[in-house]
Amino acid sequence: MSVSTDLVRPEQPAIPPAVAIVEIEGAPSRAVTSRRAGRWWVVTFVALAVWSFAAALWNPDRFNPAGFALVQRFVGAATRPELDPVFLRVVVDATLTTAAYAFVGTALSLVIGVVGGIFVSRTWWQRDPIRPNRASTAGWAGTRIAGAIPRGVHEVVWGLVLLRIFGLDPWVAVLAIGLPYGAMTAKVIGESIDDEGGDTYRTYRAAGISRMAALAYGVAPTVLPDVVSYGLYRLECAVRASIVLGMIGAGGLGFQIALSFQSLRYEEIWTLLGALALLAAMTDWWSARLRRRPSRRAVLLSALAAASATGAS
Predict the structure, then answer these.
(1) Is 222 helix (H, G, I), strand (E, B) or coil?
(2) Is the Cβ–Cβ distance between 102 and 236 less than 8 Å?
(3) What is the rounded CA–CA span in Å between residue 140 and residue 134?
(4) Partner of 259 at 20 to 30 A CA spacing, among 17, 130, 177, 222?
(5) pLDDT-derived band at 3, boundaries 50, 70, 90
């Protein structure tokens, strides 16, 4: 016995002809308009790039033909770097100084970032754990603004200001790296707490646990991998920043490179650049290994390396 499907089939609402025409004809027009707008944005960007290049760079007066001789001397010196034992000892000392600036500055930034990240997060300012949207807006906004000030100032500007205060002191480079990097790290950690540990924190708080205990046991295990990864990235940036800070008088490889450039000793420059490349490669290798195997031995070796670099400087 067969049952007619007409009895159980739901009735389809009829689409008015006018609506059907609008839907059929309107969809392609919106897609075409979107593609045309995208093309105009690309054309505008290319036109602005060409105009900027022509206005800023394409000027015959900017090129100095006499400078090509210096470029040839600089490139030719790459085949005969300075290997005098006395100068090599200077290079080793400058390399250890630069490494010490990077390690200690990054360590300071992590301390500032961990402490500041707690207060920068919106999670910390939530007074009612049951209603996460009720936050102390004034306190949270104040900490965000306070963290944006050191974060917005470049480390070179910090170095120039601190040079006027402390003179030629190692703390100039350490603070010039630690203060802005610490503010950046605090922002990243605060956002990680809100994004990854907010629900766990509210659960702990709803159970009657204090705020510090909820952060330590509920949020820290979740956020710790991000903190380690970002701290290692900041260490790689700190190595390059230490070079620039050395060129303004903080010491290290940057200071020696600036001296060699001023005296046109290109052979010494290539030796210093080789030491810089070796330091950057070792930092990249060490950070990649620590990301893959964050064991106690790796952390201990890293601490010993930082301590030895600091002591040698």
Answers:
(1) helix
(2) no
(3) 12
(4) 177
(5) very low
> What's the length of the chain?
313
User: CA 50 to CA 293: how far, in whole Å?
Assistant: 47
Of residues 136 and 222, more confidently modeled: 222
95 touches 275 (CB < 8 A): yes
> What are the strands, taking DSSP E only, across 67-196?
none
**Distance, CA of 72 to CA of 287 (rounded, Å):** 37
Please tell me what DSSP assigns to residue 9.
S
pLDDT at 56: 64
245-254 CB burial, b ≥16 within 10 A, e <16: bbbbbbbbbb
Rounded to whole angstroms, the Cα distance separating 142 from 128 reads 19
Q: Which residues contact 192 (CB under 8 A, 6 or more apart)?
A: 117, 223, 226, 227
Cα 140 from Cα 194, distance rounded (Å) = 12
Give the tens place of pLDDT for each residue, 66-120. 778 888 888 888 888 999 999 999 999 999 999 999 999 999 999 999 888 888 8
Confidence of residue 122 (pLDDT cuts 50, 70, 90): confident
Beta carbons of 268 and 78 less than 8 angstroms apart: no
Going 63 to 65 to 70 to 72, the CA torsion angle's sign is positive
What are the backbone angles phi and psi of residue 135, rounded to the nearest 5°? -120, 160
pTM (2 decimals)?
0.70
d(CA 275, CA 90): 11
Tokens of 186: 């605090």
